[in-house]
Amino acid sequence: MERRTELEIDRNENLVNEYKGTLFEYLVASKLSKNFSLESSFVESLTDDLKEMLYFYERSIRAVDSELVDALPFLAQKVVESIEKNIKQIKKIKKIYWVGKSKVGLNLEANGLLNEKMINLAEADLLIDVDTDIDTDIDTDSDTSRDSNFGLIPISIKLSKANSFVNTKNGGVQSFISKYFAYERAPFFQSVLNSKIEECYNNLGEGLYSLANLKFNGEFDRRWIECGYSELPGELPANMRILVLEYYSQIISLIFQNCLYFYNEDRMLFFRSLYPLLGLGNNSITQIICFHGKDSVSKKRYALKGLHLISYNELLKQHDKIIIGEHKKGQSSFEIIHPDFTLQIRVKPMNKFTARAAKVNCSVKYKS
Questions:
Q1: E strand or H helix at 356, and its extent?
Q2: Which helix (H) or strand (E) segment is 166 a member of?
């Protein structure tokens, strides 16, 4: 059997995650529509291409993991029940938009309705239009009434294995600090960081080329491949892999030092800067994470393990309780710890370590 490369494995896992995530969003939207007698209008909103894509995704996942496909409807139903129970504005729904997927979702973005009502779709999977003319017992101070028109409720849906980190944000390392940390000195820190990353990259190239008995000319050129060396860290000889891992450790150490500075300068501003990294950059969004795992009795691999519903203001109440964990030498990540979650910030290659660009991956693990 031909051995799959590290990149091929990552791509296959990413595809499965993309497919199951899309199917899960669809099932939640579909079941919620059915509960409010909106199923026909929701189905009509799906383009033929989208329907074909959903069929393809289902067949593809079923071919490798039929148990996962069979479990998705039940897990989606539990998310729907959580939405109906915990978001009290949802008493009567006028329309459900599958953001960026269905025709109505695309039209909603195109026709300016969002700008008119000042609704931010960032990070939303569903947008629920509720009837605000009826008595919905809406608390005008609640988290989900922050927009000028609280009849539109954005919801983010995630499906994750229990006790694992959920990916929430990927960003380029060369703009990470200036983009997400709203401090006056952030652009300067980003500039300094980029200069040091360039220096670290050149040191990495010189070190690896020296081990390969080659001269480094500022880029990983075709000679690297022609000599039989991989562009994936896991496929390098041990003495070379150490240099690559040290390179990423150096970058994350620089980001860690910047975060410590911001944390000590203004704790509240630092906490607010974390929201986009948590998948909560939209301050009116409600995020629902469905956790699955193996049941010790039934032996089902995708049993429901819990639902986590969180919103912007709920997290803000404990902003003063966050701490930054230490960065250990040689590691490519560090953690920011909150009573409700752990945010992991990690530096990874975009695809191949030979490219100058690297990415910052943010993932969250919520405490039960």
A1: none
A2: strand 166-172
